Amino acid sequence: MNHVDVESVLAQHYERLAPRPTSLAFSSLLGIAAGVALVLATVHVSSNLTSPPAQVPVGAVSLAIVKDLQP
Amino acid sequence: MVWILSAAEKRCGPLQAEELEVLRPMARAMAVRMTGCQALADDIVQDSYLRALESIEQGVRVANPKAWFRRIVVHAALDALKSRKPSVELDQEAIAAPRNTVLVQGVLDKLSPEHQVVLALAFGEQLSHKEIAALLDVPMGTVASRIHAAKAAFRKEWGEDQ
Fold first, then answer.
1. Distance from CA of residue B70 to its chain's centroid?
2. pLDDT tens track for A35-47
3. Which one of A34, A48, B1, B106 is most buried, by most CB atoms within 10 A?
4. Euclidean distance between CA atoms B102 and B109, whole angstroms
C-alpha cells in the first residue's frame, strides 16, 4: 500500500466531502445534455413508429421526373 | 448567526456585511475539507465570523475580502484541529458516510493539524504553493516541504491501516 496515489485519493475524498462549484456546474450540464439526448431519441423513435416511411417504387419516381422534364 | 449579521451591519455597513455573508458557502466548504467534520466546520465558520467582525471593529482595512476571510478561516481551522480531542467513537456523520470517506478521513485524523490543513489546501482547494504560503504565513519552501511530509505521513498511516 506504500504506492498509493495520495494526491488522487485525497482529491476524490475532498470532492466527496464538499464538491467544488465548478464540478457541480459541469455535472448539471452533463445531466441536461443527457436529458435532451433522451428526449430527442424518444421523439425520433415514436415518430418512426407512428408514421412509417412511404414505400414508393423507384421506377415510379423516375417516371414522374421524366414526365416532369418533358416540354 | 442572525445576531452576528446585525452586528456586522452596525459595525461595517450593509455592503461589507453582504460581502462577508456571500463568502459563507466558500468558508464552510473549506472548513469541511480541512476537518472532515460538518459540525466542527460550522463551529469554525462561526468563529471565523467573530474574528472577522472583531478585526473590522478594530478598524482593519481590507483590500480583498475573499483572501482576507479565507485566511481567517484557515487559522480558525488550525486552532480548532489543535484543540480537538481524539474521539474513539464513531459519530452519526461517520456512520452515514460512504466507507471510502470514513477510511480516508480516519487516516487524515491521525495526522497533525498542520498536515491536515496543508493537504486540504493543496488537493482540496487546489491552491498554488504561493497561495498556501500567503494563507499560512510561511515561506513557499516550507509549504513544499510540509506537503511532502504530509503526503509521506498519510502514506505511512494508510499502509498501517490496511
1. 8
2. 777 777 776 666 6
3. B106
4. 10
Size of interface A-B (CB pairs under 8 A): 51
Helices (H) and strands (E) in chain A, counts: 3, 0
Find the CB nearest A14 among B123, B151, B154.
B123
**Structure-block grid coordinates of residue B162:** 490496511
Round to whole Å and give the CA distance between B108 and B118: 11
What cell numbers appear for B94 in the block? 461517520
Q: Coil, helix or strand for A71?
A: coil
The residue in chain A having the minimum alpha-carbon distance to the alpha carbon of residue B31 is A18
- Neighbouring CB atoms inside 10 A of B32's CB total 22
Report residue B54 as a C-alpha cell.
472583531
Hey, is the C-beta of B105 within 8 angstroms of any chain A C-beta?
Answer: yes
